[in-house]
Amino acid sequence: MRLDFTTLRLIDVSRTFGRRRALNRVSLTVEAGTITALLGHNGAGKSTLLSIAATLLQPSSGRVEYGDRDAAAGAAALRARIGLLGHDLYLYSELTAAENLRFFAKIYSLDAVERRVDAALERAGLAGRRDDIVAGFSRGMRQRLALERALIHEPRLVLLDEPFTGLDEAAREALRVRLRAARAAGAIVVLTTHDTAAIERLTDAAVSLVDGRLAA
Amino acid sequence: MLNKLFAPIAVVAAAMFAYAPFLILNAPYESTMGLVQKIFYFHAACGMAMFMAALVSGTASAVFLFGRKPWADRLAVAGAELTVMIGLIVLVTGPLWARKAWGVWWQWDARLTSTLVMWLIFNAYLLLRRYGGPGSDRLAAAVALFGMANVPFVYWSVNVWRTLHPKTSVIPSLVPGMRGPFWFCVVAFLLVSVLILMVRTELEKRREELDALYLAAEE
Amino acid sequence: MRAFVRAVWIVTRKDLLIETRTREIFFTTVFFALACVLVFAFGFVREGRPVEDAAAGILWIAIAFSGTLALGRAFERERHGETLRALLISPIDRPALYVGKLLGILVLLAAVEALVVPLIALMFQAALFDHTLLMLGLLAAGTLGFAAVGTLFAAMLVRARSRDVMLPVLLYPITVPVIIAGVRGTAALLQPEADEPMARAWLAMLVLFDVVFVTLALWTFEPVMTE
User: Fold this and answer.
1) How far is Cα A9 from Cα B72, in angstroms, rounded to an integer?
2) Nearest-CA distance C163 → chain B (Å)
3) Alpha helices in chain B (DSSP H)
4) Which of B143, B148, B151, B164 to mutate to test the interface with C (most CBs of C within 10 A)?
5) Would you say residue C50 has pLDDT above 70?
6) What is the C-alpha to C-alpha distance for residues C110 and C142, in angstroms, rounded to an integer?
7) Which residues of C touch B120 (CB under 8 A)?
8) Of B65, B133, B161, the CB nearest to C160
9) Cα separation, C14 vs C20, whole angstroms
């Protein structure tokens, strides 16, 4: 039974770490087929918010709803519909590009694994490098591969943590193109960044976090 | 404010400790060891208190891990600190007694070895909580749980290992005149343990309330 | 059930793929084990002949020390690139993830032991293979017990501070029964008149330990890994 949803809703979500309040009663609704940017300086709580939306972190109070489902119910089925790309890229540098994609495709129990791997490599522009070890890739190449890895299971909710960092303009444009394609396919895209220039003409909405709170 | 049982228990425990030396002094002398044996009353009582504290910590850790109850974590920490503290008393008084009574500082028998291993495990628990960074409360809870599950195995394996070697010491079975003072001291130490647990969990609770106040003040 | 086994195999296969390609952990662990054996040999060899029971002790200490190292290195791979996070966010069953990693470690340690154990037999003139089946049983059950607890703890510590030193500090006290059983079982087999019933008794205890602690690890993996 495939779980699906068309909205992500954060309701009064707070998260504290001992004495530090990372998020303070954040409420946010994001719809399918949109790209939302989460802006804010370092330490404003963007990564924490993303981790909570990804079900990796529990909120200290408040709740998260995926469609009409609460986060707690249907955990594994929910995770199958979420794609996360963190700063560390989540790639095995000892494996080749194709092996990385193949491994995660199998983890997500996808069908037609080889076809999907080929398609993902095409989209990343890495078809010619499929059997090269990731450790030898440049930052831009890794980023492209990591993005395709995160999207290989066609997730409904796409979460990206600072995806534009360290990319040149050509790579940034390629990323924008890819994200627009995901949006057109109906995904809920949320990305964090502290660079407003990078997301010009890309996002449908932008919210700012200041010290864990949504700025007006 | 502390549980209202604290004051009455404290009074009773204090009274018991005040009376204990008299009981111990008047207890019969052990035939071979004489005066030295009397350390046993506190040593063995501490041993029982230590195992109780470890059991409390291990069980509370399981409740915390699977039930996520915050009070369980407070109790687990308190129990672990108590285990280490009383364990230190056991591990110091034991060799002191053994040296005088049987000429050796340490012996690798089942009881001593499992006490030492247990003590090391709960030290590791505290180290993990202190130096492990965020999230170490749950990690430490797993350690306490594994530690508790481990004790029967350590005891059994050392027992079997040691039966192959001659025993050079025998914990004397209790002469009737000694049983009274022995159980008296056990109860006294158990009461003190309960007191310490109460105070320590209260301290943990205050810390959390303080954190909450800091957070509220930032609003 | 089939999905569980499939998930386990995917994880184990990936680990074995990486290891067969680089062989990094395998080689470094083998040489570390040999270095251990050397150091201990100087401590326990008197007048060119090993002290009684030294071979058994040195064998299991080498397994414990090099096993700890291998565990640390194996999870360091998952920490680099934060791939453990990617696995935790995937729909894969958490216990399957644990078993997958455990099997990978076991294969690695088996390969290391296949080299180191015969070398110890040689260097200490210890007739370790006169009772091959029992010896293999002890090695298998002991390594499983050690690795079962070690995999859980190493996974637990991936994001903790001071993880390098915390792993042995946590692991050794809890695996004391494994060491005792392993050493005494091996020593029983090395006696001039090998004490097979004794070795079998120790093997039985190891198997019980394995059952209890693998079960405990499967239960606690999920709550311990979620933040």
Assistant:
1) 32
2) 7
3) 6-26, 40-67, 70-102, 110-131, 136-163, 176-218
4) B143
5) no
6) 11
7) 173
8) B133
9) 10
Q: Which of B85, B3, B9 is nearest to B49 (CA)?
A: B85
Question: Check: CATH 3.40.50.300 for A1-81+155-216?
Answer: yes
The Cβ of residue A138 has, within 10 Å, a number of other Cβ atoms equal to 9
**pLDDT in the model for residue A2:** 65
- Rounded to whole angstroms, how far apart are CA atoms B68 and B85? 26
Query: Hey, where are the domains in chain B?
Result: 55-164
Are residues C14 and A95, on separate chains, in Cβ contact within 8 Å?
yes
Please write the tens of the pLDDT for every residue from A99-137.
Answer: 999 999 999 999 999 999 999 999 888 989 999 999 999
Can you say whether the dihedral through the CA atoms of C157, C177, B96, B176 is positive or negative? positive
Closest of C109, C110, C129 to residue C118, by C-alpha: C129
Q: Say if CB B190 and CB B48 are below 8 A apart.
A: yes
Structural domain harbouring C152: 2-225
Q: Are A188 and A31 in contact (CB under 8 A)?
A: yes
List the domain boundaries for chain A.
Answer: 1-81+155-216, 93-154
pTM: 0.89
Domain count across chain C: 1
Question: How many angstroms separate the Cα of A109 from the Cα of each of A104, A146, B110, C14, C82?
Answer: 9, 18, 50, 15, 21
Closest CA to A104 of B100, B60, C68, C87: C87
Of the candidates A107, A77, A114, the residue with the CA atom closest to the CA atom of residue C10 = A107
Strand-strand pairing, C45-46 and C49-50: antiparallel
Task: Say what angle helices C54-79 and C132-157 make with each other, to 10 degrees.
Answer: 40
Q: Give the sheet arrangement for strand A205-210, strand by strand.
A: A82-85, A157-161, A188-193, A34-39, A205-210, A213-214
- The pLDDT of residue B169 is 47
Please tell me the number of Cα atoms within 13 Å of B31 on its side-chain side: 5
